[in-house]
Prior knowledge:
- The protein is an alpha/beta fold.
- The protein folds into two domains: 3-140, Rossmann fold (3-Layer(aba) Sandwich); 165-296, Rossmann fold (3-Layer(aba) Sandwich).
- It has twelve helices and 13 strands.
- The chain has helices at 8-16, 53-65, 75-81, 99-106, 123-137, 140-161, 185-191, 210-213, 230-239, 241-245, 257-260, 268-279, and strands at 3-5, 23-25, 43-45, 71-73, 85-89, 114-118, 168-175, 178-180, 195-196, 206-207, 220-223, 251-254, 293-296.
- The longest helix has 22 residues, at 140-161.
- The chain is globular.
Amino acid sequence: xxxxxxxxxxxxxxxxxxxxxxxxxVTHECDFPPEASRLPHLSxxxxxxxxxPAEIDAEVKRLxxxxxxxxxxxxxxxxxxxxxxxxxxxxCAVCAVSYDDVVSIAARLPGGPTVLRQDPTxxxxxxxxxxxxxxxxxDPAAGIALKNEMEARIEAVRSAVEDRERPTVLAIEWLDPxxxxxxxxxxxxxxxxxxxxxxxxxxxSAETTWPELEGLAPxxxxxxxCGYDAEMAADQAREYADRIDSTGARRVAAVDAAAxxxxxxxxxxxxxxxxxxxIHPEAVPVPAGLRALTTxx
Length: 297
């Protein structure tokens, strides 16, 4: 089977399931595993490089307000790779090519490729996506095995922290304006032994203001701006230190959101383990190859 992935999280899922050799094209943002980035790219962003967080937010709102896409789908590349299966998403207009655009273009391609939509809003749906993708590729056993593995790792963290005190956590997914963690992030915090002060599982990330966050006094603030790695997130945390300090956070840690928090794929489990090590370092070890950068506390 020839598979085209239009979502970074789905690319990661396909490789984790053992289907990497069947993936023939990915998005410009698909950078994990490294071999995925070497495949033909099916998309490009219309957001100019070098913008500040506030400028990125303004440009996204401007484009969405005018009904314009944030990503361009390279229809010629999609046609040239002759996919049998296209994996797309419909959960976030800011995250990937529009699902409706994909369906429209796929209908005109030779052979009529199947389009599989992935739109998880919580952790259970992310785990079930492993089953859905494996079923679509024709190897349901691979999906069952991967889901079982992910569930076992989650349970290991949950069991390690279940009888411990639950420190309060504030997850910040963007800094200007501030957005608090949504979708699966509150669940990840809960499983890692914390208590999310703002986020609600299954609900979208919420735009707020710094005055609204003032004085919350979380035990831990986790800075996880979407699309930023840990070093970039730490830079943002330092740039906005005064505003973060206004929340009264006792500790502040920056993490790689793209790797372990913003993409609804297998690496969310790494994120749960990382959160566990931040919230309960005495009970949960830092996962191999992953780290948080502490900017205070």
